[in-house]
Amino acid sequence: MSGADLADALGPGTAALHRTTTAEQVAETLRRRITDGALPPGTRLREEAVTTALGVSRNTVREAFRLLAHQRLVGHALHRGVHVRTVSAGDVRELFATRRLVQPLGVEAALRDAELRERLRAQVMAARAAASAGDWTAVGTANMAFHLVMVSGCGSVHVTEMFEQLIAELRLAFLQMPDERALHEPYVAANDHLVELLDAGRRTAAITALTGYLDASERQLLAVLDHAPPPRPAPPRPAPP
Questions:
Q1: Is the distance from CB of 140 to CB of 180 less than 8 angstroms?
Q2: Is 233 inside any structural domain?
Q3: At what angle do helices 23-35 and 3-10 cross, to 10 degrees?
Q4: Which of 29, 146, 157, 163 could form a disulfide with 151 if both were Cys (CB 3.0 to 4.6 A apart)?
Q5: pTM (predicted TM-score)
Q6: Phi, psi at 84, each rounded to 5°
Q7: Alpha helix locations (H) across the chain?
Q8: Could you report the per-residue pLDDT of 132-160, keeping only the tens digit for each?
Q9: For residue range 74-111, what is the model confidence (pLDDT) as tens digits?
């Protein structure tokens, strides 16, 4: 991705960031663009392009890259600079193990909170509208927002921040799938069904549905990633004369 393409991917609103923007805010902007699918795995994050797009210093961008590396969203390869990570099958197994621990908290919250269920329903409607338009990347974004809304309902800032990072890393796995429609389409109806169960107060059925949902999603990703070749290393640079 060229410097101009990277600036476009960061979006028109990001140039309005104030000069005093912190590295955490820059990292958050980049993380959200990764979650949105604008920065797919392997994208090189050119320091100068990010600096120009966000109107911040190079030192701030470097610190943001360090934060994103800590969140497992970017990596640094010799002779290639900073790039958006490619997620492995092992990564996916760890992500889903965490989801199985955390997401039942969101089910409990949604059972108690009618307003939260309305926010979940709004994400289902957004996914249906995107599906009707054939925008499967947007369907995936709405699907991820659905689960983030649910987990945020548990009221823990720490859990929500952790899950935001998990969702961003998981999106990298989604972007490695060969068919976005086949990946995302089944979960539009699955999310709708989950909201129906929550509205009806059917706790056990909702937990069972969520468990089956996560199992199916993990299998779908691993069916591809378990057979994916490892990332190819960058060719070595010739030695200077």
A1: yes
A2: no
A3: 90
A4: 163
A5: 0.77
A6: -70, 135
A7: 3-10, 23-35, 47-54, 58-70, 89-112, 114-132, 136-152, 157-174, 180-199, 203-225
A8: 999 999 999 999 999 999 999 999 999 99
A9: 998 777 789 999 999 999 999 999 999 999 999 999 99
